[in-house]
Design brief:
8 strands; 212 residues; single chain; alpha/beta
Amino acid sequence: MKNYIFDFDGTLANSGKTAILATQAAFKDFDLPLPTATDIEYYMGVPIEVSFKKMTDKKFTSAQFAELISLFRMHYKALESENLVLFPEMEHVLEKMSVVNKKMFVLSSKHSVALNRNLEQLNVLQYFQAVCGSDQVKKYKPAPDGILHILKANNLKKNETIMIGDAIYDLQMGRTAGVFTCGVTWGAHASSLLEKEKPDYLVNKVVDLLKI
């Protein structure tokens, strides 16, 4: 494989606790019933613009929903420095791939500003040719728009490209886009859920990414 597209949350970085705490804090600020950690984890990989409406029955005005999103981002930014970490061995794997001239990209459901900030905080931004956030596509995961954007912008061939992610939405997106798929079992979704999507690869250890 020549081109590797990585999901961020739950794949490159362990940010689950940050997302849970920030989501619950935002819902509390808005006097909404708090979603459980299990519910939040299930929707990881889906943009908050979609997942938040699935975790409450409240009907929002545009202004109210914009305020809820803003509150989440405020809490996330405050929490991320102490909770956001790379998965063990991930930097080693990225460095190894870089040395042999693999092209690497990050595709996330979070905004590209936050995505770039997080990659820089984790000191791995330099390994990636480009990133694609939710603000750069019209349709979110599991729609293939993000992958297709990366393929077109970087003149990549589908049969040389793989989408790597911890959620079923990553695998569904990759399959629809016509690229190879790889599920990783150290993130949000259980291996049994990932297996149902029939990925081309399913890995249990970060270092196993080097075998693809």
